[in-house]
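Checklist before submission:
- one chain only
- standard amino acids only
- sequence pasted in full

Submission:
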Amino acid sequence: MGLDNTNVLLGALKRNPHLQEYLDSFVKKTGTKPEFHVQISRDMETLEFPNIIYPVGDPIFIHIYQKPGQLKEYLAIEPALSKQDKKIYDQIFERMIVMTPEMREPANSEELKTMLNQLMDQITVVGEKKETLLSRIVKQKDHNRIYLGPLQNEILRFHIIKNLTGLGMLEPFIRDTWIEDISCVGLSNIYIIHKIFKQLKTNVVVKDEMELDNFCLKMSERMGRPVSDSAPISDGALPDGSRVNVVYSREISKRGSSFTIRKFAAEPLSVTQILKFKAFSAEIAAYLWLCLENGMSLFVCGETASGKTTTLNALTGFIPSDRKIFSVEDTPEVLVPQLSWQQALTRAGGKGEGEADSEVSMFDLLKAALRSRPNYIIAGEIRGAEGFVAFQSMQTGLPVIATFHAGSVRSMIQRLTGDPINIPLISIGNLNVVLIQQAVRREGHTIRRVLNLAEIEGYSPEAKGVLSRSMFEWEPISDTFVFKGNNNSLILEQKVARSLGYENTREIYKELDIRTKILEEMVKRNIFDYHICYDIFAKYHEFGLDSLPFPVEGV
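Returned file contents:
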């Protein structure tokens, strides 16, 4: 353990006695001592038997542990309420209910947190002496206030605020930025998908069916799409943008109510981060850079959990900074760096008094997008009739970038031309580039790779179908990408090069090579911040090589 980690651990143990208690118990039980890390990294996925603890914000810590012969576990370490503290918690909670109607409605969760702390200050008195930990009620002025010890006060405040402003039992997972998905099916342990350690069973267990039903109901209400016996399925987003699916009650879910949360990343992965993970090559990224900078339409395709939205968000950094973006989604997952960005979300139809009385669909939003005269339209996901409007937009010369569920170019065309999207075959040619991405198993790990990047050439009457041309393909044995379309790209030569005014359209491949080297240099220099990458791309678009903050070998 490094000196920094040791110093941080000593401070954490001093502030959080429950962490010391956990470590003492664990060492006594297993005979092993976990390593403490201030930060974890993706290099840790190669650990044979991980036994590490990392902080996610006081007073919560995470322990990743694997015993030989058993699966990895995700153990959340947080202060527990004693039986006496639970009684005090209930007293405080009851008093808060009485006092809440007199208070104004908070504007956001941070303001609610401040108000709850103020209520705690009015309800409790914090003392220093050990005998005050017995929670006796003392009189001060005109109020009966609950007397607490300092540590007891911190623990109770943590639980009050966690349960009333956050997602209660899910607080460790919400805080942990390394978690992608959280899922619960009935009365069982909660499972998560970790960005480093993949799917893990956690020590957070749902034991009461009524508690689970109430939790799902409250979460759906926070999304603005409450579940009920008559409408037991709800899809939506939490205030932080995390995507949620709730299935309510045993009537349609035999194991009981369930939920899945796909966590929202506050900052998208950058293109260079994705290059570091080898999801695609610098040459593929350079190709897409040229395409998106010059108004080509792109579909990022793949199956569930293949990383489509992650890739789409990263690629938006290639769009010039002076362009106007209009995004349309069911739930807010798209993030773009451009300042001129209009973000539109669908709305479910009203179901009761006081609710919105009309539905706003993706179809409606795409029609509105056309009237707002954007430079690019980004559709979070195309699934239905909105696809027709998207292809009409492409036909007018307005580029569309979207995600789409399909595992190949052929299956994409089949879905687009079938119900409920029904795009005429002849219109498919308005789409320029298709990226096929997939989650694959390799050496015991799940990795994401671009399997194929293809150009859509258009409809062929002779072939009675849509022709496509493969540009890049993934070679699974060597885990490399082959540029099959080198010096043979219809999009680069006939569209991008001509729009840039090249007399010799083959010169575009020299520009492709330059951009490939720029991206490789950025990875070498560990330039991974999303906004720094965007700034480099934006300045290169305006000022060329002279704007780069580093030299590029061979350019």
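Reviewer check: The chain is about 35% helix and 25% strand.
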